[in-house]
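Task: sequence design from structure.
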């Protein structure tokens, strides 16, 4: 009897695992989408491309940050230090503060939203257009810009942060991306983080 029930148990366990995995991916995707939506809305933009794998990674990172707080809150509730209504307010506050204060300080390679430090490779005419927005050419190049804070990009647009404005530049005007190495690049990465949080706080 035990040998006959094993295949049924395996199929049942596989079904439960598949359902749990599907729910987990849905939660991670929804969380990541919400975080990116709030982040971009703070910069004055919206993401029209719904299906993006970056949302799953961003959702996972958000839950890694949220989980210790959630466990602590549940413990406090069980100890009757906090009421559920107050806990919900704390979680709501986290959902507001995380995309605007924490998310921009976490590298995009691990699911955060720190602007990337890259330069744009464009035509000389396009470089002339960019110069009207205070974007200078890179040293020794007629077709490459200085390093810029790129907050986000999709298939159509690149969002560039400047100290006095936020630009959405069409990718059809960009021939490629590059980077100008140097010791100042490290400091510029920190500048981009602070620039993003400053814009999101306005």
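Answer:
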């Amino acid at each position: 009897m035990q040998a006959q029930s094993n295949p049924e148990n395996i199929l049942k366990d596989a079904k439960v695992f598949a359902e749990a995995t599907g729910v987990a991916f849905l939660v991670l995707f929804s969380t990541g989408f919400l975080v990116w939506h709030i982040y971009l809305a703070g910069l004055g933009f919206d993401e029209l491309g719904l299906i993006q794998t970056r949302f799953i990674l961003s959702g996972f990172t958000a839950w890694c940050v949220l989980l210790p707080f959630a466990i602590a809150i549940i413990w406090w509730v069980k100890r009757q230090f906090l009421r559920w209504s107050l806990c919900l307010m704390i979680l709501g506050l986290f959902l507001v503060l995380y995309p605007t204060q924490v998310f921009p300080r976490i590298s995009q390679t691990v699911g955060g939203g720190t602007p990337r430090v890259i330069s744009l490779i464009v035509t000389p005419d396009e470089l002339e257009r960019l110069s009207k927005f205070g974007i200078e050419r890179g040293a020794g190049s007629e077709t490459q810009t200085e390093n810029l804070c790129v907050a986000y990009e999709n298939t159509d647009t690149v969002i560039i942060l400047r100290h006095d404005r936020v630009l959405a530049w069409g990718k059809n005007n960009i021939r490629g991306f590059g980077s100008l190495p140097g010791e100042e690049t490290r400091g510029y990465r920190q500048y981009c983080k602070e620039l993003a949080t400053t814009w999101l706080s306005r």
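The chain is about 55% helix and 10% strand.
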